[in-house]
Amino acid sequence: MAERGEKSSSSKKTGLVSFLTGKPIEIPEKHLFGKCRFVGEFEKLNRIGEGTYGVVYRARDTKSNEIVALKKMRMEKEKDGMPISGLREIMLLQACNHPNIVCLKEVVVGRSLESIFLVMEYCEQDLASLLDNMQKPFLETHVKCIMMQVFKGLAYLHKKEIVHRDVKVSNLLLTNMGTIKIADFGLARELGHPMSPMTPQVVTLWYRAPELLFQTKTQTSGVDMWAAGCILGELLLHKPLLPGKSEIDQINLIIDLLGIIGTGTPNDNIWPEFSQLPAIENFTLKSQPYNNLKTRFPGLSPSGQRLLNFLFMYDPKCRATAAECLESSYFKEHPLPCDPRMMPTFPQHRNLKQSQGQAQGTVAASVSAPGLSQMFSGAATNLYPQDRVLADPTATSSKLGINELFGSLARR
After folding, report:
1. Which of 23, 194, 265, 384 is the most buried (most CB within 10 A)?
2. For the chain, what is the domain count?
C-alpha cells in the first residue's frame, strides 16, 4: 500500500500521462506557468550598472550556460508586496518584442520576499561607458547607425503608446553585433486617453525636455524625442550637449543654445499654453534671441541641422516624431549609416574594471591589444563629471531648483 501511495503521488506531481504508453510525461520547464526559477540557478559574475529602480549584474545561467543580465529590483520601503514601478516595468517589457528593445527573458526569485530579479538579454556595452573611455568620437556613419536604431525603437514604443521617460546614453545598450537596445523601463508609462497627470521629476536632468522643467502636468512622447536630440548632439560632439547643474541652470543652457521663447514675457505664439505652465507665473527668462545650433555644430550638414531643430522644438506638439526622423534626408545622404554588423567593437570596460582587481596583468594585456590603443587610452578620462546613473529620479540638487522656488504654486 505504501508503494502504491508513493507511485500515485509521483504521478500526480508529473501531471501528464501518455495515452500510448501510459507512462508519465515530463513537462518542459519553459511550458510551466505560474512558477519562477530560483535565483541560485544563476552564477553572479560581476556588477555592471545600476538602473532607476534596481542593480544590474552580469550572470551565467548554470542550466543553459548562457550569459544574461540580472537586475535586482529595489524593495527598500515596500511592505505590501512588489512596487508598482517594478510591475509596470515587467508588464511593459513583456508587451514589447522588437530588435531595439531589451528582451525580458523571465523573472526569478530568491528565498525572501524582497529578492526579485529580472533576467534580461546581456549586452556587452552601454553608450555611457563607451563615451567615457573613447579617445576619438564615433564617425558620423556610426552616429547615424546608432540613431537610426534608437528612432526605430522609439517609433515602436510610441506606436504602442508607451513613453520611456528616461532616454539617455547609459540606457542605450550595444551588443557586439552592433545592435542598439533601449533598456531600463523603470519610469516608463502607457499613455491614457485622456492623459492623466504624471510627475515632471523624470528623465535625467541633462536630457530633460523644457516642458518637464516648467512643471507640465501632462507628458507626451515628445519628452523622449527631446532626449533623443540631446543624444544625437552628444554623439556628434563627444561630450554632453546640455550638462546643467540644476534645473534653472538647465533652462539657461537650453536658452543659450536655442534662443529665448519670448523677450522677457511668455510667447504663446511659439508655444501655445506656454504662459499657463506652473513654473512660468513668476519666472522671467533671460533674453537671448539667437539659435546657436549652427555655431555648436559647424560641420553638420543642413539636413542634420534641420533634424536637430525639429527635435528641439519648444512646443512638444510640433516636435519631430520618431517615424518622421527615420524619413529624414540626413540618413539618406553621405556618409550613409553603416550596417550594424560593421560597427566597431570595443573592450568590455564594465567587466575589465572587475577583472583589474583580481588580475591586473591579464587585463593590461587585453587592453593593449593591437588596434585598440588608437581608440582607448590606458587610463581613460572621465568627460562626465556628473554621475549619469541617478538611482532616485526625484533626488534634489544642492542648488536651488524649480521645486524649491515654486513649491507654493504646487500646493496652491
Report:
1. 384
2. 2
